[in-house]
Design a protein that fits this description.
By secondary structure, the chain is α/β, with parallel strands linked by helices. It folds into 2 domains: 72 residues, 2-Layer Sandwich (60s Ribosomal Protein L30, Chain: A); 168 residues, SPOUT methyltransferase, trefoil knot domain (Alpha/beta knot, 3-Layer(aba) Sandwich), CATH 3.40.1280.10. It is built from 9 helices and 10 strands. The strands form 2 sheets. Strands 7-6-5-9-8-10 form a 6-stranded parallel beta sheet, sandwiched between helices. Strands 1-4-2-3 form a 4-stranded mixed beta sheet, with helices on both faces. The chain is elongated.
């Protein structure tokens, strides 16, 4: 039976994305999803001109608005003189995500996020997951940031290249991943395996919890292994997006070059 992602109940209308790189990634990957582009009048930089050229190619309407209006559209975010109106983010189906063929890896990685509510962290994690070849990112419908313009910006456009699925029940989703042969790795700031010593192989689900609380007990108990990043500083924990990058680099190394961890 196909497991369906949770319906997106948070964003029914169009969304805004802003900034040169997010707009460029969006128009390269999904030009039909862009409803309109607004730019400031006057001379345009080379990157903006490239975006407008693509907009013309795909018949995307372009309007000129003064900076104050763009500020309002971008909710005072750093828009670099260009804002796009796009269709609501379409979350991926979990089964479709897991069926992807990851050509460069001797295995598969999915990133599962438990209670990551900061959109900047979510965007940064999506960017990291894409860079290290993950099949996708799984977020819960509740107790989580959703894919918003802030997330798109923080991901540097990676959200347009990496599937993100929203599920109604994270615990049952982890059970489903186990049933499909995934090893579940959680992270723990205390006792856990040093990721540098783990021979990562096969199908891997990396579960990351919030900075303040870590993994919830129910989710922690479902992990096959817990990982702990060794540190010597006086600060007790890392930013969750930084921690995700450190662990994923080790997983990526193991799955690209399995002999290195033997």
């Amino acid at each position: 039976m196909r497991m369906k992602s949770a319906p997106d109940t948070k964003h029914k209308s169009s969304q805004m994305i802003y900034g040169i790189n997010p707009l460029w990634e969006a128009i390269k990957s999904n030009p039909r999803e862009i409803l309109r582009i607004a730019v400031t009048p006057g001379k345009k930089c080379e990157q903006v001109l490239k975006i407008l050229e693509e907009a013309s190619r795909y018949s995307v309407p372009v309007v000129e608005l003064d900076r104050a209006k763009l500020d309002r559209l971008a909710d005072s975010g750093v828009h670099q003189g260009i804002v796009g109106t796009i269709r609501p983010y379409a979350y991926a189906d979990l089964e479709d995500m897991l069926e992807q063929d990851q050509e460069t890896l001797h295995g598969q990685i999915v990133v599962v996020l438990d209670s990551i509510t900061d959109p900047q962290n979510l965007g940064a994690i999506i960017r990291t997951a894409h860079c290290f070849g993950a099949a996708g990112v799984i977020i819960p419908q509740d107790r989580s940031a959703s894919v918003t313009p802030t997330v798109v910006k923080a991901s540097a456009g990676a959200v347009h290249h990496l599937p993100v699925t929203m599920v109604a029940n994270l615990s049952r989703t982890i059970d489903s991943l186990k049933g499909k042969g995934f090893w579940i790795y959680g992270t723990d700031s205390g006792a856990g395996l040093d990721p540098r010593s783990v021979p990562f192989e096969g199908k891997i689900a990396l579960v990351m919890g919030s900075e303040g609380q870590g993994l919830r007990d129910l989710i922690r108990k479902k992990c096959d292994f817990l990982l702990s990043i060794p540190m010597i500083g006086k600060v007790g924990s890392l930013n969750v997006s930084v921690a995700t990058g450190i662990v994923m680099q080790e997983m990526f190394r193991g799955l690209v070059n399995p002999r290195e961890t033997e």
